[in-house]
Each structure stands twice: as C-alpha cells, then as structure tokens.
Amino acid sequence: MNKIDTDSATILGMWFGIGGFITGLAGIGLTLYFSYATNPNAYYLALSGWGAAILTTMASIRVGSKLIKLAASQTDQLITLTEKNVELQNEKQRLISISEFLASKSLKSATPRKPKQEGLENEN
C-alpha cells in the first residue's frame, strides 16, 4: 500500500490558499470600489458578503489541515499494523512447522510395534 504524501498535499494546499487569499483581497477591493461608487448603501452588503467568504475560507482551512493530519496519522498506524501482521503471520507459520514436527515425532514414538511371532503360520 502506498503511503499518502501529506507533505506535498499540505504545501500545495498552502500555495492554493495564498493564491486564493490574494485573489479574494483583490476581489474585495474591486467589489467595494465599484459598489460604493454606484450605490453607497451597497457598501455594507458587499462587505458582509466578503466577510462571510473569508470566515468560510478560514474554517475550511482549519478543517482541511486537521483532516490531513488525521490521514497522516492513520497512514502511519496502518503501516505499523501491516508490519506487525506480517511478523505474526511468519511466527504462525514457524509455530505450525514446529507443531507438525513434534506431532510426527510423538506419533512415531507412541505407535507400538508388534513383534514377529515365529512358527505361527496360517494353515488355511
């Protein structure tokens, strides 16, 4: 199983976040400038919309970073458990081999051998 590359995902997310933040600031400035120039009452409406967008972005960044950390820790735990599973499977096979050997040795020593009786022959 391939490990999730959380470092590159985090760095890529950071650059997209910075780009989105710069674009958002430019959009806020342009929207406020053109809204205020045409209708001064629209200034507060535009400002509240962009404020909501910024708060939503901040919440999404927080949730996204926690999910990336969770995925990274789950991946590390999965790798650890997979390695432990392989070790246990190898130990199981070793114990099966030992038990088969011991069973065959005890079967050989436990089986009584009948001595040959001389002089007795079947007369039929």
Element layout with pairings:
Layout: H1 6-38, H2 42-110
Helix pairs in contact: 1-2
Task: List key phrases describing it.
mainly alpha, 124 residues
Give a description of the structure.
The protein is 82% helix and 0% strand. The protein is rod-shaped, with a radius of gyration of 38 Å. The chain starts with 5 loop residues before the first helix and ends in a 14-residue tail after the last helix. It contains two helices and no strands. Helix 1 runs antiparallel to helix 2. The protein has one domain (6-104).
Structural class: mainly alpha
Whole-number average pLDDT?
Answer: 80
Largest sheet: none
Order of helices and strands: HH
The helix count comes to 2
Contiguous uncertain segments of 5+ residues: none
Q: Which percent band covers the strand fraction?
A: under 5%
Tell me the count of domains: 1
Approximate shape: rod-shaped
C-alpha termini separation: 73 Å
Helix content: over 70%
The rounded Rg comes to: 38 Å
**How many strand elements?**
0
